[in-house]
Design brief:
Elements (H helix, E strand, L loop, with lengths): L1 H12 L5 H15 L12 H16 L4 H14 L7 H19 L5 H23 L6 E11 L4 E8 L11 E5 L8 E5 L10 E6 L5 H8 L6 E5 L15 E6 L3 H14 L5 E7 L8 H9 L4 E7 L8 E2 L2 H7 L7 E7 H13 L7 E6 L3
Parallel strand pairs: 7-8, 7-11, 8-9, 9-10, 11-12
Antiparallel strand pairs: 1-2, 1-6, 2-5, 3-4, 3-6
Length: 371
């Protein structure tokens, strides 16, 4: 396994800077081999290409960690049922992927690299199919929008409830969401912003950024009564039920969503652990979700909320980049640490935690974009 992982990482460096080219070859070969597969994908393919390559890179990076490799791919297989992927499609995708890598790398590609990717894809496909076959839940849930509240020009907080049986998940996980009325066959991932509840309601925090078709629809077009599709939960940024360590949470933007869910879950049973939540923003107008956290903290003295603004001279709270702010409150060496937000925020937070000698196994994070 170690030699295989090394070959995969070496070969990936040959094409890493040409991801768009890899994706273009991959989809062209796949649709040429099986034209019917095109109907499973959205008309706009740019976002789909990004997700494909993210899944490839993540799989390669976890190949030398068998437990995480297995868990990630089984959950990916469960998630991909929403695309109506069948067992026979995996062979077509594997052949297309290997050819795309070979053509992009050119003369630097070797027979050893080719075989390594074939072996890896076989392992990937087997685990994904096992995950899909072993999940008794439906590929996705139809969920009715119950409320929709704008929290600024680009942010909305909305709730929905699955119409079928409840969606099982843990606080801190995320799901793929489709708005079929507005953007059919286009899915995007969003963290669930509340801990599981008896009424089965799911809360999402969505920011419409750039040309994000699904996010824009969820913020600006979706109305109460609309139906969404919500796929199986994924992600491991969950509380360790066996831990007695205090908790540090760092959030930026709509990265607040899973942190809020973690705080709600801890509120159900916590008696001994302190939770410190640092929320970073550029200005006070971007601190859209503090009211609910303050309400939760009012009834739970172990929970503290520390907002910070990096570019708001009139803000009366903490000022500066969030990584610098929470570092001043440390050390955090003996805490369970959770970080959620943009890729740049997560990178800076992880550097701060590493400098504080926090053990890597005590850190979990979700980043919106590449780390």
């Amino acid at each position: 396994m170690d030699n295989l992982a090394q070959l995969l990482k070496e070969s990936w460096t040959l094409v890493e800077e040409q991801r768009d080219k890899v994706a273009g070859y991959f989809y062209a070969r796949m649709f040429l081999t099986d034209p019917a597969l095109r109907t499973l994908f959205p008309v706009q393919m740019d976002g789909q290409r990004d997700r494909l390559l993210e899944a490839i890179v993540t799989s390669v990076q976890t190949m030398d960690d068998p437990e995480n490799f297995d868990d990630y791919l089984r959950s990916l297989g469960r998630d991909h049922r929403k695309y109506h992927v069948r067992a026979e499609h995996y062979d077509t995708m594997g052949d297309a992927l290997t050819e795309a890598l070979r053509r992009t790398a050119g003369e630097q590609w070797t027979v050893e690299y080719d075989q390594a990717w074939r072996d890896a894809y076989q392992a990937i496909g087997e685990r994904m199919q096992a995950g899909a076959a072993g999940d008794p839940n439906p590929p996705f849930w139809h969920a009715e929008v119950l409320s929709h509240e704008r929290r600024g020009p680009d942010v909305a907080v909305l709730t929905c409830r699955p119409l079928q049986h409840p969606l099982p998940y843990r606080a801190g996980q995320y799901v793929s969401v489709e708005a079929p009325r507005y953007q059919p066959r286009l899915w995007r991932t969003y963290s669930i912003a509340n801990a599981p509840r008896e009424d089965n309601v799911l809360e999402f925090h969505v920011r419409a950024v750039g040309a994000g078709w699904v996010s824009s629809a969820l913020v600006r077009r979706v109305r109460v009564g609309d139906l969404l599709r919500v796929a199986a939960p994924m992600g491991s940024m969950t509380l360790n039920p066996g831990s007695t360590r205090d908790v540090l949470c760092v959030a930026g933007g709509v990265g607040l969503a899973p942190i809020k869910a973690l705080a709600e879950e801890l509120a159900v049973h916590n008696r001994t652990r302190w939770m410190h939540v640092f929320v970073g923003a550029t200005s006070r107008d971007d601190l859209y979700g503090l009211t609910e956290l303050y309400q939760l903290a009012a009834g739970h003295p172990w929970l503290s909320i520390i907002p910070a603004c990096s570019a708001d001279p009139g803000f009366t709270g903490e000022r500066g980049e969030i990584a610098d702010v929470f570092a001043r409150y440390g050390p955090w060496t003996t805490h369970d640490c959770y970080v959620s937000g943009s890729a740049s925020l997560v990178r800076s937070a992880l550097r701060t935690l590493a400098a504080d000698d926090v053990p890597p196994e005590n850190i979990r994070y979700d980043a919106f974009g590449e780390i």
